Amino acid sequence: MQYRIVNIGEVFLLRVVLANRAAFFAFVLAVFLSFASPYFLIPGNLFNLLDQIVVFTVVALAATFVVGAGEIDLSIIGIVPLVGAVVAWLMVHWGWPVSGAIACGLAIGALCGMLNAGAIALLRLPSFIVTLATGAIFQGLMYMITNMSPITGLPDPFAFLGQGRIGPLTMPTIILLPLIVVMVVAQKTTVLSQHLIALANNPEAVRVAGIQIGWLRFKLFTMMGFFCGLAGIILTARSASAQIGAGANLLLLVVAAVVIGGTPIVGGKLLVLGTVFGSLTIGLINNGLNLVGFPTTLQTATQGLVILLALYSDSQTASIQNRFAKRMIRREWERAK
Amino acid sequence: MTTTDDTRPVASMRGIDVLFGGVHAVDNVDLDLYPGQVLALLGHNGAGKSTLAGVLSGSVPCDQGSIEIDGKPVNIRTPRMARHAGVETIYQTLALADNLDAAANIFLGRELRTLGIFRRQSQMRRAAVDVLQRINPRFRNFDNLVRTFSGGQRQSIAIARAVLFKARVVILDEPTAALGPNETLLFKDLIRRLRGEGVAILLISHDIHDVFELADKIVVMADGKIVGRLNTHEVTKDHVLSLIIMGGGTGDTPDRPRGLRPIDQGC
After folding, report:
1. Domain co-membership, B267 together with B173
2. Does residue B157 lie within any of the structural domains?
3. Burial of A5: CB neighbours in 10 Å, binned 0-12, 13-18, 19+
4. Which of A191, A200, A205 sits opposite B111 (nearest CB)?
């Protein structure tokens, strides 16, 4: 039976706010900041804001599929700096050309993802545990390569990828925009995205449907590793050096972007565009905190708080919708009398 | 659908043996399924009926024996191979993904694709709507997620898989266990329609009333062996019940739920 929603406020809350939570957050924050600080709406600040979110957004795009499939990849913290270190090493010490080093870096990222999927299938352990361990292994490899000191002296064309501009947009932003399009299309049109949703919902259904779960995870984690590699390359190019502490806070930002975007932490839904707005929300929060002179030391704690809020509102959405549905039924019932 | 010669079985299983450790879960069993016939497997928990059906649906590896479908020997080691051979299983849990719509669930694992990775969304939706309207005229809201559907609608989706992919054999594992009275009626109607299309149906049930209403033949199992092959119209419920209870004679058999077996095993 269909019940009419009469209250415009309820329509707004249900259809607009709850359905596009991250976009709504980002919008409210942007409006607020444009009043709170005269420097917010300056083009320079806005393009800078976009530039700031690129590295973790690249990872978060792929992580949306991982989380949406009910899996998690904690080895981000290892793959990203490892690829950065390898790429820098190849160029500085072995004199590889920029393109060759980048191709090798992306391949190593993908390979790390394959190793994750292989370990999950072989050991029959949850991805949480496996990637926690492999993340440490990848990080350790990075320490061995860098010998605990940053690799500097990267060639200029490589640094241009991280610091250069074409028009008002920085190179990282220009790399990010087509990736967003690709991932949104992947979510909406591929068979893979539906298999991942089904995997989170009901692994048994996936198995009896004749889909190889191991192969599905292999594709998923390989893609994740590839995107981590790309993020590692951009991160290295931005500072024109491979830092051993690179990507330390990345995991927090990625998880925050994904869950603010509305992809449930247990999976079963993929919201790539939501993740993009989640990233934007984080960028706006950081940018706003800077503009209003909030101490930088408190930013990480704030991000943690935002994750909690997002997860809490996830858990409440169902009960809010339930309450509204009951109220509508009651109203309909009274009208009938 | 073309009617096949009624006297030739669609599927025949010969000398099927399944061992779990030292337990003979299925012991040298022969079973024939005929087109347009419902064969009910009855027996205690642990009598081996679910295991036997599992061999045909590819979820249980058999240790010995052969399976023929339409006279051709087939090798069924995984659910995918079973589907390929024309055996569709409708599980008690229906094996649906809640956050996908009806069409995506019907085509799960057998999607129509463009360039190998993209879904042919509209084509799959059209086929799904067609088949769902045929088997359940009251079906609405094709684009909603399966999580919002009633038990009967969910079952329609599971059956639509069998109809759409022209299954030769359909295995129903405890199909009415999760349904209300109205939905059970609808479901029985669906089974009769499947039978009318010349599909061979293997029904596993605890409910002897359902079995008498639907089945053409009854096979009673106990201790992994077949202890009775009966025509439904020739026997009484009491007779069948006594077979189930007295059956193998020993009575006490270990119960092995399906979920405890390791997955991904070959035959």
Report:
1. yes
2. yes
3. middle
4. A191
